[in-house]
Amino acid sequence: MLHSILKSAAVFLLILIGFILILLLPREQEITVFSAFHVEADYPFSFELYIERIQDFTDYILTEKGLGDARSGRPVSEESGIFVMRSIKIILPAFLVSMLLGTLMGALQFYRRKKFTGKLQNFLSWLFSSVPDFFLFIAIQYLLILMMQQGLPHFKLYGHENWYSFLLPLISLSVFPFLHMSRFTSAALENEMGEEYVRTTYAKGLSDFKALLHMLWNCWTPILNQAQLVMLYILSSLPIIEKLAGYNGAGKELLFSISSNDEIKALSLMLPFLFIMFITITLSQIAKFWLVPKGRT
Length: 297
Hints:
Blueprint: H1 2-23, E1 30-35, E2 38-42, H2 47-64, H3 76-111, H4 116-129, H5 133-149, H6 167-192, H7 196-203, H8 208-217, H9 220-245, H10 250-259, H11 263-291
Antiparallel strand pairs: 1-2
Helix pairs in contact: 1-11, 3-4, 3-6, 3-9, 3-11, 4-6, 5-6, 5-9, 6-9, 9-10, 9-11, 10-11
């Protein structure tokens, strides 16, 4: 297990270095005016300019002994912490809902696979998993607006100021990973049907429910392996969902920092995302070490 954690830490470090190198690519626009009707814009690149930007970045970090102050005058770490905490209110519940409820729903789908409700659930999972999350977000917004016009009490659909502001982005972000976990768990249980221990379980006269519990216990490895994918999907979709919702969290602010060439702010917002991914991988490996029967890892 220690070897896997060290390998994940090394990958985390390489991704961090790669992100910084991409972030420091020269992006200054050079505009050349040839006449009143002929203006050309270009993004010139040279290794000398690239190395100069890397040296400036390194000097800034060493001089400030950290990330320094933001353009607002507050420390960058303090300002970024506010945005990150807003996004955590979306990221953590979305991950838990996807992993826990998604797995539970997948087990239920497998348990009822021969009944009409199980087949209907399978069809709905397939249908909604093919809908992009941003389209789903816009559809929910539109539906709520129509319901408000028909008498539903009005509430603010955009922004982050109200206590419920995180709910709509949370629902939109959770749908796809939740359905993915549901379909994956059902398929993993289906694959267990041919195992010897399942035939032994039924030969002993145990019920379908008890057989399901045995099979679910033996599916921990593939299920826990999905934790990394689920968190990756949530984090990668977060910026666009926050932007659509006008939710001023770390994802939306990261997009703004990159587009405004504020590398220090972008780095301070990207670091927590990378750290969350690292923690997710580490915890899933620890969970597998303690939960998964030996020989099935």
